[in-house]
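A common beginner's mistake is to predict each chain separately and then try to dock the pieces by hand. The better habit, illustrated here, is to supply every component at once so that their relative placement is modeled jointly.
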Amino acid sequence: MDTEKVTRNKYSEVQRVNIFDNEFMPHVDTMYNFAYRLTFDEDDSKDLVQDTYMKAYRFINSFQQGTNAKAWLYRILKNSFINNFRKKSKQPAKVDYQEVENFYNSDSVDTSATVDLRVETVKDMIGDEVSNALNSLAVDFRTVIILCDLEGFTYEEMAKILDIPIGTVRSRLHRARNLLKQKLKSYASSMGY
Amino acid sequence: MESVGKGDAKKGCKEFEKCLEILHLMLDSEASKDQEEYLNEHVEGCMTCFEHYEVEKQIRILLQTRLEHKQVPSDLASSIRSKVFE
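With all components supplied together, the output reads:
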């Protein structure tokens, strides 16, 4: 986004190791889980996280000590994911842009906000139903829900991680939630709730 | 597009779209003080929005509590360090 404007630091060897171990490494667990929710594959997740940390170290001089390391790492991971998967599959198979575009351009999405789901039904849902519903969303939608609801990032942080305006974060989240609710609703219906 | 329940949930609230938007902002801790005051007051007299608020809150709880947490491979941290500092 504004990488050109980022102040470059000159950290010493000791400082670099210090930042890496104290500010980056504590996030390995959550980074791995994020990677897994994007790739659905343990080996890919490991590669993705390793790749992210190697890049983070290589570009450590553009990191401001004491700022949001987690958001920065997420941004690197998300970009690595997009690049790696495009290279790997030669086509964005896991990133269904057509699906995404259709939803973005569809007016009917907003009316689906009225999907009628009852609190009791939601309370009764089990992990499999939730993860199936989440995993069935296009990656862009899945990502905003993970960042917001699971990781608790603010809209502003999400905008930086995803490199999109805050308004887009909001509308994408809105649509993602509607879609998720629809999926949950159809699970509920199929279970006879 | 699926149109299950389309329109049904809107019954009883004339400003449903606006409420829904604020409701999400509130649950994401992104609402302004005015928006929060508005919705808190509104749900006391609007069952539709009250129910929606509860459902949305429950979905977030569901996501936070029911999704499987993947155990990180025990060697990942050390392999990252050795790759970076080798």
